[in-house]
Amino acid sequence: MKTVEDLRRLREELKSQMRVRHEGGTRIIVGMGTCGIAAGAREVMTAVLDEIAKRKLEDVVVRQTGCIGMCEKEVLLDVVRPGEPRITYGKVKPEHVPLIIAEHVVNGRIVEDLVVGKIIE
Fold it and tell me: Can you tell me the mean pLDDT for 5-31?
């Protein structure tokens, strides 16, 4: 980067990428209420972030939320792909994360064995 114009171009490119991430990409939401943390949500969150970084997935936004209300099903992880129902996975362990990312986030195939809820938004 040598000029102010180079800096402006980079800024616009990054803004464009951020818009895609927040408007049209896939969202992963991890329940991080007290019950989720006690069940291992921190480790699941770390596994999600590691898997996304390993796969270099740029169109995925990871968020955390508080109590989802199904404490007995913790750790809860939601996947929301554009134009598809919101899928809630329950009793998620760090070792489940690569499967959920590969099958559902990347390939659009729901991992039925772990599903505890489906919300049509």
Answer: 74
Q: In this structure, what CATH number is given to the domain that contains residue 30? A: 3.40.30.10
Taking the CA of residue 91 as centre, how many other CA atoms within 13 Å lie in the half-sphere pointing to its CB? 8
The model's pTM: 0.79
Question: Is there a domain that residue 6 lies in?
Answer: no
Whether 85 maps to a domain, the answer reads yes
Task: Write out the residue range of the structural domain in which residue 76 sits.
Answer: 24-119
Measured between alpha carbons, how far is 51 from 34 in angstroms, rounded to an integer?
A: 24
Tokens of 33: 């209420």
Q: Using one digit for the tens of pLDDT, what is the confidence trace for 25-62?
A: 899 999 999 999 999 999 999 999 999 999 999 889 99
**Distance (Å) of CA 83 to CA 58, 117, 120:** 18, 17, 9
Q: Is residue 114 part of a domain?
A: yes
| 70 has pLDDT over 70 | yes
